[in-house]
Specification:
Elements: H1 16-20, E1 27-30, E2 36-38, H2 42-45, E3 51-52, E4 61-63, E5 76-78, H3 88-104, E6 106-109, E7 112-119, E8 125-132, E9 135-144, E10 149-154, E11 159-163, E12 178-181, H4 187-191, H5 194-202, E13 208-211, H6 215-232, H7 239-247, H8 255-277, E14 280-283, E15 287-292, E16 307-313, E17 316-325, E18 336-340, E19 349-355, E20 358-364, E21 374-380, H9 387-396, E22 400-404, H10 414-423, E23 428-432, H11 434-448, H12 451-469, H13 473-500, H14 516-530, H15 539-542, H16 547-556, H17 567-576, H18 585-595, H19 603-621, H20 634-640, H21 642-649
Parallel strand pairs: 11-12, 21-22
Antiparallel strand pairs: 1-2, 1-3, 4-5, 6-9, 7-8, 9-10, 10-11, 12-13, 14-17, 15-16, 16-19, 17-18, 18-21, 19-20, 22-23
Helix pairs in contact: 3-5, 8-10, 12-14, 13-14, 16-17, 16-18, 18-21, 20-21
The structure holds zinc ion (ZN).
Length: 658
Amino acid sequence: MTHWRVAPAAQLAKGQESAVDTVPLKWAHDAATGAPRYIHDPEVVDKTGTCICPACELALTPVLAGQPMRVRPTAHFRHPAGALRDACVLVAARAAAVRHLAERGFIDLPRRTMSARAQGFSGQDYEVWVEEPAEQVRVSSARMHDHATALLTLDDGRELTVDLTGTREPRADGSGHAVVTIALSDPALAMLDADAIRARLRVLPDMRWCSHWNEQDLVLRSRTAAQRAVSDALDGWGDDDEAEFLSNLPDDMTPAEAQAYRRETLLHREAKAALEAAEAIETPGLEVIVTRHPPEELAGDWDDQTIRKVWLTGRRRLELDDVCLERRLGRIVPDVIATLGGRQIYTHGGTLTRVGDEFDEDAEDGYAPAWPPTLLIEVKVTHGIDDEKLRRIQQLDVPTLEIDLGSLGGRLSREQFRDLVVNQIVGKRWVHHPALAGKRRVLESEIDEHPVCLEWAQRIREFNRPRWLAKPAEHWVSAYLSAATGFHDSSVQIRRAQRTRNPADAPVKVLGPEDVEWQELAAAAEALDAHGLPGGMDREMISDTGLVPRILSIRHNRGIGYAVDSGFQVLNAIMQSGEDNRRWHTLYTIAVKAYGLAQHFSEKQARLYAAWRQLIVERVEAVDETYLRPGTYDATLSALFPEMAARIATGYGLSKKR
Ligand SMILES: [Zn+2]
């Protein structure tokens, strides 16, 4: 038999006492068996047993039992005089309900849901729900624990506390104890007969979980799921990552900077992981744009004649054979070093030319250089490649792709993010590609040869002509020789610096049209041309191995354009020069004679020179065309080097062919 412990009224759910004080007591317990007795049960009507109050255990007297139609008063159990407790009516009804629940043999438990929140680096909140599904469980026994709770023992041995007030708050006490709360506080419950209570038990009103057997597991699962939601949105990471991040965090970082750095670190890492897993990467096309504006001297009519050449290749998917993260290459540590797989790739593109707004020409590449097998990938979030790193990348001369994740913006799932990094070209740009510099040179020289550009040059010559003619040719001869000497001395210094430089340093640039030495030389050459002395900027004349630096070397008995000390050493280089250069040999012998270089020869040098000169004499006499020169530069050279003029004028060594 069940013993009911009666709690003080204060332990009852608040608000019930006043509601039940007019409610008659309809339920009692059989004193002998503990079975619930309704006021109209036959045992009560026949008075075959003694009834007691399930709450206070006092003996009760049935009033009007078996007369359900009577009202005021209605049938009820009466406590002994002065002993009535208001709470007894509900407790009695609940006891009856619990008894019926046990008889029924099962209970339908609702699903248990639980939510958890986590905040991302962006400040966004992520809420997730996890649940244990609803289930029907078999009840093997049910007993009142106190007037407000019952304890169900399930077939599988688990215990379930049923709070009968319907008001208990959920709490995760983590004790592994399950509690549901059912609203059995309605005063009307006390009035219900057995069938009505059974009916109510079939559809348990407002049953909800206060605590589930798997409460701890649910808490853990929901927290994990919230963390995963943050992580999947690329907006946060786990405790291990955070610990590692903090251990590497510079001391002087503000919380706001640290938060930005967290996001950067995370996206950086995700991108690298995506690339490491990828078998190919989509890359944008290569592009070189060269624009030539009309010279300032022509300002006005030509302003809309800007020449623009754009060279493009298509975007392409590069197969990746091998992907390494943050491995040192030379003096840099790229985010990713990939080895390209698949077929050999060529940079095949096309060039579009426009003059002003007009389409001019569209040409496909005739020659497509092969790609190197290595690809570097740099991932940018907020900080791009700095100048120092760029310089080192250029030095390595390896195709280098930058992926700017900062521009991808918005909130992306991991899948979307990986798709962008691997399969799309948004945010990607070529920081460096070996094909670009060569292509730029080609476009520059194509522009030089463009009819519009040639026309400009012609106009500029005409524009400058009065200035060139304002001074005598002798002035420009002197200017030209001085500029040529300066140009070649600078070139020699640059080449020497190239040879002795630390291989890790940036390559030294050779002199070009944008350098002042070049411009002075070109201006003097143009002035000479205006005076009828052409060819001053031709390769044959002015290149490292051209006539002018060689004759200057002989004249001054030192290397000019040659990193040697004496005129003979330059002459020695000339003696070794290839067949193409032999046609100019007679001019060098004329220079040696004209400037008396032989006086500086040692005996051995004199012998070597004599033998070489003898060979030239014989070949000229034999009319060997490889030793005969065109007259192209005779006039200009005679003006530049007047000491040679008389001998040049004899026509010695001149080809008769046209
Ligand atoms: Zn009582």
